[in-house]
What we know:
Elements: E1 2-10, E2 15-21, H1 29-42, E3 52-62
Antiparallel strand pairs: 1-2, 1-3
Amino acid sequence: xxxLELKFExxxxxxxxxxxxxxxxxxxxxxxNAAMDEIILQNPFTSSGGxxxxxxxxRVVERIVQEIELGE
Length: 72
């Protein structure tokens, strides 16, 4: 499963990460950048370290899980 991770810095200087499932691909970096700007402007989320103040990074993460069969 792929996720889009948006990383921000809050007022305390700590990184806050928001993950969105199933991003539209290919990911449009201009749209992600604009969305992150809007999140900072609108301030819809709270964090324990205060408001989000700056963008740090964005990335698509894919998690692959492979079960390992264990003998008894």
